[in-house]
Amino acid sequence: MATKRKGKTVPCEGCRERKKKCTAGQPCERCKRLGIQCYYLKSVAPSKLESIESVNHQEIQMHVEVLEDIMRSMERELYLLKSPFRVKQIAQYSEALHSSDADYTTSDEDFDHHHHQNRLNSTATANRFFSQHEMNSNWQLTFRKDGGISINTDILNYANLMKHVEALGDLSSTIPIIKQPTLASLSAGGGYLHRNVLYTVVRRGNFRAILSCIQNEARKQIISASTMTPPPSQHHPCLLEYDQHSNSSSSSSSSSSSSSNNTPSIVFENKNLAQQLVNAYFACRFLHRVVFHQKTFYDMFVKGRYDLETSPVVCAVSAAVLTMHCKHVLTFVPYDQQLGLGEYYFDKARYAVSLQFDEPSMETMITYLFMSLYKSNLLRPQDANMYLEIAIRIRQILAETVYKHPPPSPIYSSTPSHPNTFNSITTTTTTTTTTTTTTTTTNTINQTNTDAIHTTANASPKRLSKSKTMNRYLGEYETFKRLHAGFQDCVQFIQFINNQRGVPAKSLSPSRNKPSMLNQENTSFKQLFQEICAETYDPKPLPDESRHTARAILKEHYVGRIAKVVGPYFRRVRWSESDLIPLSFLMKTEEDLNQVYFHQIPLDFRLAPSIFEDGISNTEFRKRLQEDGRTDINSVTIAARYYQSLLALHEPFQPTIRRSRKGVHDITLLVPENLEDFDFKQQKKRKMCLLATSTSLPSSSSEEEEEEEEEEDDANVLSVHALRAQEVCYKCSILVVRLLEFQCTVLEACTIPTPSLFCAWDTLMRNSCLGMDEDDLKASGVNNYLSAKDIELAREYAVRCIEVLRRGYLFNGAEREVFEYYEKIESQLLTALCKSASPTAKYWEPVSNW
After folding, report:
1. How many Cα atoms occupy the beta-carbon half-sphere of 845 within 13 Å?
2. Residue 185 to residue 188: CA distance in whole angstroms
3. Which chain positions lie within coiled-coil regions (predicted)?
4. Which of 196, 261, 611, 616 has the smallest count of CB within 10 Å of its CB?
């Protein structure tokens, strides 16, 4: 429409072209009378300076990425020039030259003399060439603005060119093409790297601490069962029976006669406690691991229920939330009452689901799954394994019957769009600075929705239309698919307790290594376990979900992309019997990892590259993170996962730190012996046995000496890559700790990715060199790649790892031994740093002293 400003009317385009008076209508009177189209040109405001700078910044960043790609391709070409095949060819050519000049019947001393003389001659030739080249040549390397490179030389004719080529050809075997340590120039043994023994002491210590917690929990159950009076026998006959010791303690609380006596007082004080726990879950922990479709969950299990404690799903979720290390639960449930309240809701869920035990439905599957999660969080693997087995069997039935067919694809587009949908994710970014405000707002919204649900519950039921039925099936199907993440969490816990998650404890005694707490002889159930682990968890955001939920789902998707890249590499390196890893495999995996993070993940989920600049302080690191508009829990988690994966790629190739026996007792790691040195000796013995069986007895001693010489030569060849692996792991471990520390302090996240933190923790504890004095450091060669400043910095960041665990993990009541384990290590680290322990909270008071 035409606009009027200070008495002047802007005409339409038809009147303006013919210079006619326009009435400023839509259409105007003239266009309406003539029957022509009436349209106006919309005035466009000039672009703001901020948007112009943003566009320029993006263009510069794109140019930088293009230059990085060019540099990578150039480095790859240089790798090919200096490949192991070329090294072998040069070595064979030089040996042929030496053999033609010398006699074939020379002794070892003569050979050493000739070899030393040839090296002196080649060195003198190189020095003479460089001195002449510096005096006579005036070469210049120029980088042009268009990205090209020009080399200005003093070569004027063909004869001069051939002279330089001949000089370079003579020095091809002495002058390396690449002077910096690169992957392809690190191995002269046929393109293979030697896998070193990992620093297993810390890994086993954490594993032993968790097993100690499990044994302590089992002991508590036995003591409580023996001191309690037998429960009445008139409880419901369909109640699920399980372990004899836990049956007496759990069934008594489910009977109607004793339920009122065992009800916590906080339940009487707060009538909407279950509703608050569910709201707190969807406001915090749900965004860390999306296992539901929120609207479908409320429609199926919350809507129309005046007493939420009658819903087994609500009770199971409430019990699990109380053990999920969430700070928001502390606002309305004190820490000392969480365990008792969790048992109360667990018994409620167990009794309610026992009434429909034989009915395979979404409700029973979710109930048993979260009951298994509850027992997993309390470190009770026997009960967790039992409930998980029931949930998996129900899941198999539902997958073959109810949710066999996916919903039609047009349903995704027919669902009404939400204002904060997935389409707006990549256009705007919000920095999450506080989670408490979000939780309060979400709780208010959910409470309002619940009131509306109760208000509409009395209305007369109406027949659902076909579109509503399809939309409901869409939500249920998506929920069924997302619950796979919860199954994965339970399965991984069971596998960890069974020592199937990579903990190197094979040399330990079977009684201490394999706790007899799971059903190992059930082959069909083990096959279901493997199927659960093999399936992919890749949910899709629905149009009616909020922007935070959609970003959390996409975060899981991109983390899965990273795991898919490094998964085959980890299986090859960690589980293979051979210690020789192909160099090309490492190069390809690292290249694919960089390709996924820097090119396939959108900019909205990536932090600015300037944040990870080398040499910046911790204060500057935090400042750049806060100034980056893309910083939130999701982008920080993805960045931490990337650097943790890069660390894990190079971790097996770090130099092995051999400790002396006298320093073992100075480390309180719940391990009585130096297992790393023990593993190294065991591995060497296996190699010697294989060598002895494959060779004859008379020549065994001589070939053993040759094998030792070859191992020393391999160590010398691979030491350059070991230094590179040491540097990469050292930097990545510090970056991971900084990111997770920012996530749990500034962003106030209740959940941190503990695998990423523990991976950095292992490297930092290795570099801390606890229990080693100066003589031990010199004897083991640690001073060659770790300075005194590096060791001190590693100890400081190891202490910060423990602080991140306290603030971002919140040990629950069942993890006392794990807390004490890290507390012992912290005291040793502080003693090594000559510092006193800061006043930190105990495991039973997680936030009282903050």
Report:
1. 7
2. 7
3. none
4. 261
Name which residue leads in pLDDT, 405 or 617. Answer: 617
Assign residue 7 a region (left: φ > 0; alpha: ψ between -120 and 50; beta: otherwise).
left
Length of the chain: 850
Q: Quick check: 329 and 280 in contact, CB under 8 A?
A: yes
Q: Within the chain, what is the greatest distance between any pair of CA atoms? A: 115
DSSP codes joined into one string, 439-502? HHHHHHHHHHHHHHHHHHTTSPP-PPPHHHHHHHHHHHHHHHHHTHHHHHHHHHHHHHHTT-SS
Which carries the bigger pLDDT value, residue 40 or residue 666? 40
Measured CA distances, 686 to 445, 572, 581, 660 (Å): 64, 19, 18, 22
Question: What's the confidence (pLDDT) of residue 137?
Answer: 59
Helices and strands, counts by H and E, the chain? 33, 6
- 3-state SS class at 352: helix
> Please, which pLDDT band fits residue 739 given cuts at 50, 70 and 90?
very high
Is residue 346 within 8 A of residue 279, CB to CB? The reply is no
Main-chain phi, psi angles of 815, to 5 degrees:
-110, 35
Which two tokens mark 272? 């909407």
Average pLDDT over residues 249-267: 56
SS (H, E, C) 396-408: HHHHHCCCCCCCC
CA–CA distance, 461 with 447 (Å, rounded to integer): 23
Are the C-beta atoms of residues 681 and 750 closer than 8 Å to each other?
no
User: At 48, is the pLDDT very low, low, confident or very high (cuts 50, 70, 90)?
Assistant: low
The upper half-sphere exposure of residue 814, i.e. CA atoms within 13 Å in the direction of its Cβ, equals 26
Give the residue-averaged pLDDT of 295-303: 92
SS (H, E, C) 24-58: CCCCCHHHHHHCCCCCCCCCCCCCCHHHHHHHHHH
Q: What is the dihedral of CA 570, 575, 576, 578, to 10 degrees?
A: 100
Q: Which H or E run contains 152?
A: strand 149-152
Q: What one-character-per-residue DSSP string does 219-243 give?
A: HHHHHHHHHSPPPPS-S-TTSPP--
Distance CA 269, CA 337 (A): 13
CA neighbor of 341 nearest in space, from 243, 253, 213: 253
Of 186-200, 601-615, 723-737, the poorest mean pLDDT is in 186-200
Classify burial at 800, counting beta carbons within 10 Å of its beta carbon; exposed 0-12, middle 13-18, buried 19 or more.
middle
Angle between helices 583-595 and 633-650 (to 10 degrees): 170
pLDDT digits 0-9 by tens, 335-363 = 888 888 999 999 999 999 998 867 899 99
Residue 716 CB: number of other CB atoms within 10 A? 10
Q: What is this structure's pTM? A: 0.66
C-alpha closest to that of 793 among 615, 612, 610:
615
The predicted model gives 832-850 an average pLDDT of 57
Q: Which residues of 43-77 are buried (b: 16+ CB within 10 A; e: fewer)?
A: eeeeeeeeeeeeeeeeeeeeeeeeeeeeeeeeeee
Residues 6+ apart with CB under 8 A from 430: 632
d(CA 598, CA 606): 8
Residue type, 718: L
Q: Determine the 3-state secondary structure of 140 from DSSP.
A: strand
Tell me the average pLDDT across 114-138.
Answer: 53
CA–CA distance, 562 with 641 (Å, rounded to integer): 8
Give me Rg for the CA atoms of the chain. Answer: 34
588 contacts 649 by C-beta, under 8 angstroms: no
Secondary-structure breakdown of the chain: helix, strand, coil percentages, each rounded to the nearest 5: 65, 0, 35
Q: Is 150 helix (H, G, I), strand (E, B) or coil?
A: strand
Which residue from 264, 361, 266 is spatially nearest to 311, judged by alpha carbons?
361
